[in-house]
Amino acid sequence: MKIAISACIFAGLLAISACSQSDKAVSELNINSQAIDLLSRMTLEEKIGQIIQADISAVTPEDLKTYNLGSVLNGGNSAPGGGKTAAPEEWVALADAFWTASTDTSDGGIGIPAIWGTDAVHGHNNLQNATMFPHNIGLGAMDNPELMEKIGEITAREIRATGLDWTFAPTLAVAQDDRWGRAYESYSENPAIVAAYAAVVVEGLQGTVGAEDFLKNENVVATAKHFVADGGTELGIDKGDTVGAIDEILATHGAGYQPAIDKGVQVVMASFSSINGDKMHGHEYLLNDVLRDQLGFEGFVVGDWNGHAEVPGCTKTDCPESLHAGVDMYMAPDSWKGLYHSLLAQAKNGDLDKDRLDEAVTRILEVKIRSGLMDAGLPSKRASTNLDNLGADAHTAIAQQAVQESLVLLKNQDGMLPINASSHVLVTGSGADSMQQQTGGWTLNWQGTGNSNDEFGTGETIFAGIQSAMTEQGGSAVHSVDGSFDQKPDVAIVVYGEQPYAEYRGDRSDLVFEFANGENLNLIKSFKDQGIPVVSVFLTGRPLWVNPHLNASDAFVVAWLPGTEGGGVADVIVGDKDGAVRSDFKGRLSFTWPSDGTGVRINSADAPGVLYPFGYGLDYAGETAMFETLSEDAGVASLGEDFGGKIIVRGDAANPFGFYLGDSSNLNVPATALSAASLGGGIAISGTDYKAQEDSRIIHWSGNGEASASIKTLRPVDLSQLGDLDQMSLNLLWRMDSPPTSPMIATMGCGDGCGASLDISDIISSLPEGEWANTAIPVRCFANAGLDTENVNTVLQLTNESAAIVALHSAEIINTGTPASCPVQAN
Question: Which of 371, 18, 23 has its CA nearest to residue 220?
Fold first, then answer.
């Protein structure tokens, strides 16, 4: 009987499913027919406009009307008139202006509404009042797909609250090298977690395929990015090259795309990176044969920020190759007008395939029709445009839960945690009372830097959360900037870690957080010397080598980049007034944690260099093994007091400096081999002979835009330890084979926004062409121009725009007695 009943139920389900599939097919036919009808009535100019997306900082509503652009975006640093402090009402007003302009038919055009895309990657993170969730690496640690779907729903609701339509999320990178500056945008090194999250996040953002509100009302258009293998590049270089067999690459890095496509994701963003040397923005096999024919993707492909310019033979304003390869919409933030005119001319002269153009436009129109954009009306008049949804209590509660569940406990010696809430605690460290540090990159602006606490309209710092938890139950908590105190605390909570970064600016050459003389480690040890137990709360976008900090701390918690709701940390590490657990640790490592700082890939438990394997994490319920003291040998050289002035020796960077090449694609590409090139081809190096075989390097500027060769270190050096800097010079032994026609700029840097650049054109002009010569540039010239000589991390950078060829054998800071005069600077 049960079998018969089950068979009947199954037959009924099949009938319902067949009906549902039939309805979906009819609906898709209607959408396609509407798109074809629109296409048939469009001019060539309107078609070209539809495949271009411009940034709101470089386009006006009037431009949209004139050029019929298909889309706008706000990049990480773009916002309406008020910038990052723009009020939500300004966002809605600008959305109205773009809508009105793009739908204007007074010139006889069709008036197709532009779709607005935004990088809402951990909430609607460009707005001060928005709920900002932990970055993806933390969400991966919580391994909770159900909560992830809610996060997607909330993000969509807050995006819609400001009148926007589309998010460039989720990121489906499967990061394999933690040195990558976007590692924190990856849920996990494990493809299974990324695949599981892809489906639920897309459904949370877009709604359920077939449902009446799919893509509409409080749902938005989602983007699966960056297709494909952005997380697999060699050495973790952002926009770099992933090397290997295509099938193996797709098995790892393509894991999230099929689940996302099955849930109806409407857009896929092409990756900046390459596969076996071929740029994804020009990779027809992967964008068509794999993405569409094999995976069944039916939406449109959007490029990344001027990503088409990196295809060989292309520029920002001239690249039919990307369209031919499978990119449907160009992201041309500041280059849109030049690109528009070149594509239009190419369509007219036959260099642009018009059938392919029609295909791309049709795909874009179908997404606009499917999402209800065509008849959605003025953004400010939509029911979903409700500013009360920004940072709503129900939303921040989910964000706080995500923080709780993302925390990973690596050490809890002698049951240090949870902290008894009736005690007195001192909270210190750079991240203790810093919304900026706990929210990380992609927050209010691209890099997430320069953000003060009062610029956040929601949430609380980690200290504020701890203080509330302690005082509510009779205890106390004080914040100290430098760790000093009047009343000796029962416990010191030290909150520290990485400062914010995004994309290539976060690329690293190693994974050492800090060496033995680091300020955070010294702070921890100072408390231990006074008999004060220490709880470390580590803020980071990736696993880092912190063995000395683990050794010195009584408890060590990885909080990742938790977002605005810092109170979630206190919920777990602070108990009640009797010391009982209020909320247990649920987070488990979604990335393997290293035992050294070299950065060598360790994506398996049995790989050498593993300290804590994937899935590791302690909790209060389980038995805690006795912590064994860890090795404090990072496997990476520390400058310490040993810097003797040598920068380049026999053509290579002196240890522990690194040789880097940079152009508009990426400024920090490690030149680890004798021959190497920047990602955009603006500069290359190779070996040459001075006194021995290949004991020098030739630096070749292509002349295709500004490019640089630099010698850097992650940790700054103090030049003053070399002696009297007034007597010191930067001495170069080099050969000018082909002098530049544009200024050659020599730079020494001391961190973001800190440094000094000198035009050394007069020195270049005095060098005998084709002959080795010594050049001395006084260090005081850099100091006088603004260099902080005690904190130098870029000890030499040569930058030029024109074609040039220079051979370089050595560079060293030496005592030259009475240095030469400073180079003459152009007015």
Answer: 371
Cα(69)–Cα(79) distance, integer angstroms: 19
Is the CB of residue 243 less than 8 Å from the CB of residue 234? yes
Coil vs helix vs strand at 64: helix
Calpha distance 564→442 (Å, rounded): 13
Which of 220-234, 626-640, 675-689 is predicted least confidently? 626-640
Superfamily of domain 407-612: Glycoside hydrolase family 3 C-terminal domain (3.40.50.1700)
Joined together, the tokens standing for residue 52 give 């271009």
| CA proximity to 748, closest of 723, 772, 716, 705 | 716
- The most distant pair of C-alpha atoms in the chain lies apart, rounded to whole Å, by 103
pLDDT above 90 covers a percentage of the chain that reads 87
Three-state DSSP at 74 gives strand
Quick check: helix, strand or coil at residue 17?
Answer: helix
The pLDDT value recorded for residue 24 is 62
Please, are residues 189 and 603 in contact by the beta-carbon 8 Å criterion? yes
Q: Which homologous superfamily does the CATH classification assign to the domain defined by 122-389?
A: Glycoside hydrolase, family 3, N-terminal domain (3.20.20.300)
Could you tell me the two tokens for 179?
């040195």
In 507-618, at which residue ranges do the beta strands (DSSP E only) sit?
A: 534-539, 555-560, 593-594, 610-612
pLDDT of amino acid 22: 56
HSE, side-chain direction, 13 A CA sphere, residue 495: 31
Closest to 161 measured CA to CA, from 478, 380, 468: 380
619's tokens: 């909790």
The matching CATH number, chosen from 3.40.630.10, 2.60.120.430, 1.20.1250.20, 1.10.10.10, for 646-815 is: 2.60.120.430
Helices (H), 41-135: 44-50, 61-67, 88-102
Q: What is the pLDDT of residues 505-550, one digit of tens each?
A: 899 989 999 998 899 999 999 999 999 999 999 999 999 999 999 9
Report the range of poorest mean pLDDT among 232-236, 602-606, 723-727.
602-606
Give the closest residue to 128 by CA, choosing from 487, 459, 586, 444: 444
- The whole-angstrom distance between residue 356's C-alpha and the CA centroid of its chain comes to 32
Catalytic annotation, pick one of 55, 153, 185, 304: 304
CB 490 within 8 A of CB 423: yes
Q: CA triplet 338, 339, 340: central angle to 5 degrees?
A: 90
Q: 31-55 burial by CB neighbour count: b if 16+ within 10 A, else e?
A: bbebbeebbeebeeebbbbbbbbbb
pTM higher than 0.85 for the full model?
yes
Q: Is the pLDDT of residue 3 over 70?
A: no
Helix, strand, coil distribution of the chain in percent, nearest 5: 35, 20, 45
- Contact predicate 296/332, CB 8 Å: no
pLDDT one-digit tens code per residue, 641-670: 568 899 999 998 987 789 999 998 888 899
46 has catalytic annotation: no
The helix (H) or strand (E) run that includes residue 55 is strand 52-55
Of the candidates 699, 701, 763, the one whose C-alpha atom is nearest the C-alpha of residue 730 is: 763
What single-letter amino acid sits at 4?
A
Tens digits of per-residue pLDDT, 259-297? 999 999 999 999 999 999 999 999 999 999 999 999 999
Residues 159 and 167 sit within 8 Å (Cβ to Cβ) = yes
Q: Which of 431, 456, 434, 429 is nearest to 445 (CA)?
A: 456
| Residue 25: exposure state from Cβ atoms within 10 A (0-12, 13-18, ≥19) | exposed
503 is known as an active-site residue: yes
| Rounded Cα gap, residues 397 and 563, in angstroms | 12
- CA pair distance 606, 603, nearest whole angstrom: 9
**Spatial distance between the Cα atoms of 662 and 308, rounded to a whole number of angstroms:** 18
SS3 category, 348: helix
Catalytic residue (choose from 46, 153, 158, 503): 503
681: tokens are 């081809």
